[in-house]
Amino acid sequence: MAIKINNLSFVYMKKTPNETKAIDDISLEIPEGKVTAIIGHTGSGKSTLIQTFNGLLTPSSGTVEIDDFVITNNPKKNKKIKELRKKVSIVFQFPEYQLFEETVEKDVAFGLKNYGYKEEDAIKEAHNALTVVGLDESFYKRSPFELSGGEKRRVAIAGIIALNPEILILDEPTAGLDPEGSKIILNLISKLNEEGKTIIIVTHDMNIVLNNSDHVIVMNNGKIAFEGTPNKLFASDVSNYSIDIPRLFEFCLLLKEHNVNIDIDKIKNVDDLINQLKERK
Amino acid sequence: MNNLTFGRYAPFDTCVHRLDPRTKIMMMILLLVSVFLKVNSWSSTLITSAVLLLFLIVVLLISRVSFVSLFKSLGAMWLLVFLLVIIYVFIPNSSYNPNHIAFYIGNYGINYDAFYQSGYIIVRLVMMIMITMVLTSTTKPMDLTYAFEWYLTPLKLIKVPVHIIAMTLSIALRFIPTILEETQRIMKAQASRGVDFNHGGLFKRIGALISLIVPLFVSAIGRSEELSNAMEARGYDPYGKRSRYRKLHFGFNDLVAFLLVFAIFGAIVALVVIDKNFFEVNYIYWIFGFNPIF
Hints:
The complex is a heterodimer of chains A (281) and B (294).
Chain A (H helix, E strand, L loop, with lengths): L2 E10 L7 E11 L4 E5 L6 H8 L7 E6 L2 E3 L9 H7 E4 L12 H11 L4 H14 L16 H13 L5 E5 L7 H16 L3 E5 L3 H7 L2 E6 L2 E6 L1 H6 L11 H11 L12 H11 L1
Parallel strand pairs in A: 3-8, 3-9, 6-7, 7-8
Antiparallel strand pairs in A: 1-2, 1-4, 4-5, 9-10
Chain B lengths: L14 H4 L2 H16 L5 H21 L4 H10 L1 H13 L10 E5 L2 E4 H27 L2 H12 L9 H30 L10 H32 L18 H23 L8 H6 L6
Antiparallel strand pairs in B: 1-2
Helix pairs in contact in B: 2-6, 2-10, 3-6, 5-6, 7-8, 8-9
């Protein structure tokens, strides 16, 4: 399921003095089965863009096509939106604030029950999802409110994964987590991608863009400023988009500048660099 | 959720926006009293309602309050209006003229006066909404609380903690948009988990609401704790003396506006005191096209 966006625009508070254009006539295609990162500074329209992908926001004009679902600017025509939301799920920023059930397993099963699963089946699926995010049996009967921040977030993500969406969208999944917590979430994302899910990450962390994503979209003032691979982005002139080049990549660029023969298009992490340096001998 | 935005502060720069909030509150009170003063003779009622309605429409135009949002808020009230009409039409009232029967349902006579009364109450409701809308959409919530605090100052003499009340009020007002935003956020998050807030039976909707209300309360309580800690960390003392960044200023424009509203108020009070039927317009005839009595 690829996402095709045609001439999409979105305007907040239309016809009031506070009118703002969050998305300004953009067209793009998000590739299937890959990890796509969407970056850009605050207010550039990233969060608005992802919310149009499963019909939470109705576009002001233009369309979003996902398989045979077409989201248009007419909310009445957007049928089967509930089924669409099962296939395209969003994990919002700080998803731990959406927990509300008495126990962890019930909370994870909540989404499934909304889609008509029977109680026992939902709980069973919930246990599977919890295993995927790395929470064992001891968590099932605990209250979600007594968990740590990182655990809460994993429970919330499990609640979405349990729905088995084909496209998983995560809005700043590592914000506010300690390095250990971020690592668990990022490993989880890679694992889900290997299972064939299309992943979209909104992030400010350029290391995630370099290490974990195949494709990157830079947004600026509601328009697309760049689209391509992360390595191409960091190798180009990024001074306009307030982007910090990852330290590793900066180091590689310096190596290249000093005529060390490496292929910077293929370096995603430290191991890649080490391997390339070894092969040079 | 979006229709909650009615009456929200709209950042224009009109002469109504620039008035002192204290003046605006006083004018609002005077106008509300004028709207709800009961004039007995119906011709005076017609005059006062027409004058007030005209005045309010002009004020709405000057202060650039959107009529669309006014009609939207009226649309949200249709059930109330419907019930009012039902109540007024079907409940017998001894003050109605027993000869003014419009039609019978079985043996029960429906009085013309009932329609007149319900129409009048609807007009008054509309005017009330217009008045409060002008106040809230031209005055920043913070200025409103300052004005309330100013009006409550005399209560300090009898040891009422006015500044604490004002602080509570301003915090409450400050957090309304934040909580609304939070509501939208949680609704979207739960919609991503397949919750449908707009369709489904009663039990489904109650279930959907629980998934919204519990996280909302959790975050609101967490927020209040953080806020109180932050206030204490910055040395907030409810009984301490506080200086103010923004001072209220009563100017010439305020005087003119106040006198204008006061004149309208005075005229209506005078009408109530005199309460004379100025001219004979047969409203029954006017509304229904025939008159069963004359």
